[in-house]
Design a protein that fits this description.
11 helices; binds S-adenosylmethionine; Rossmann fold; alpha/beta; Chemotaxis Receptor Methyltransferase Cher, domain 1; 38% helix
Length: 320
């Protein structure tokens, strides 16, 4: 896509923080060239594995323009120069936070939760689940609620949910566990009563996740593109939903390779509705409805894929 150049000089934010007048020609406060966007794409791919498509250009502009205003910087080029030259972890964090997409919801892609509920009582206890792109918390709390429903209050007390995300801002919101009532109004009255406290007075219209649910979840920052996740435990299930879509195939393959040793034998991997790992890995095979199972058994040996097992039976003449 061609860059639209601002023909006026970029306008800085006023010292009192008020919005500056917008450039008449472009409707933009800052010049934003094709080279700037290409550089942003390269940097966010390097730090977070995120592949920004052309149509994310306006999104990148508007989210990062806030950083320019906050830093009192006149051009994207200066901002990106500063980002790379200063190597300031706080600015890199703000840059990354600005470019993530955090859309989520309680019990999103709802068919996964009955599968989890049916799965966990059959596992040796205590069960542990990793929610690897937790965003603002709705997903890990939905997992925790499912564990309580499936194992009972006492059974679930030993269970744990590790909730991670690269974005520190969403993690802070997740840790607070406070949401607008609108975000939970689709849940059953039983779930609302059992798992949420209703805000009153100044907090009217808000809900807070109950302490019993909150206690099951531990939040930590983790970048899925890091070489070593520093996780010294294995999980019965990993939720990795609606984040791989932002990664290219080589990055997806690397992430799945890192997941493999982190899943207990017989463990599950839950993917987002538009994510297909079948052509990316042999470590996991599709069990149905965007749920994958580990192909390795307890001895560490990889079980043959179903297709191969079927072929073997056919060729030995056992199949009917
Ligand atoms: C669209 S949200 C999906 C949230 C939730 N999993 C769901 O399905 O509702 C994608 C999340 O992935 C996170 N993310 C993006 N790149 C990441 C990375 N490299 N490592 C960890 N999390 C990442 C984003 O910050 C964002 O919160």
């Amino acid at each position: 896509m061609m860059a639209t150049r601002a023909t006026q000089r970029p306008v800085r934010a006023a010292p009192d923080g008020t919005e500056p007048a917008r450039s008449v020609e472009t409707g933009r406060d800052f010049e934003f060239t094709a080279a700037d966007f290409a550089r942003i794409r390269d940097l966010i791919h390097r730090v977070a594995g995120i592949s920004l498509s052309d149509h994310k250009r306006d999104m990148a502009y508007s989210r990062l323009a806030r950083r320019l205003r906050a830093r009192g910087i006149d051009t994207f080029r200066q901002y990106l120069d500063l980002l790379e030259a200063e190597n300031d972890p706080a600015e890199w964090e703000a840059f990354t936070n600005a470019l993530t997409t955090n859309l989520t919801a309680f019990f999103r892609e709802a068919h996964h939760f009955p599968i989890l509920a049916e799965f966990v009582p059959r596992r040796s206890q205590p069960v542990s689940v990793w929610c690897s792109a937790a965003s603002t918390g709705e997903e890990p709390y939905s997992i925790a609620m499912t564990l309580i429903e499936a194992l009972g209050e006492t059974g679930a007390r030993q269970a744990s949910v590790l909730a991670t995300d690269i974005d520190t801002q969403v993690l802070a919101k997740a840790e607070a566990g406070v949401y607008q009532f609108d975000q939970v109004k689709h849940l059953s009255p039983e779930r609302l009563k059992r798992f949420f406290l209703k805000g009153t007075g100044a907090h009217a219209g808000m809900v807070k996740v109950r302490p019993e649910v909150r206690a099951l979840v531990r939040f930590e920052q983790l970048n899925l593109t890091d070489r070593d996740y520093q996780l010294r435990t294995q999980f019965d299930a990993i939720f990795c939903r609606n984040v791989m879509i932002y990664f290219d195939k080589p990055t997806q393959a690397q992430v799945l390779t890192r997941f493999e040793p982190l899943v207990k034998p017989g463990g599950l991997l839950f993917a987002g509705h538009s994510e297909n790992f079948t052509y990316v890995t042999q470590a996991f095979r599709l069990r149905g409805q965007t749920v994958y199972e580990l192909t390795r058994d307890a001895s560490g040996a990889r079980a043959p894929s179903r297709g191969h097992a079927h072929d073997a039976l056919q060729s030995s003449g056992v199949a009917a």
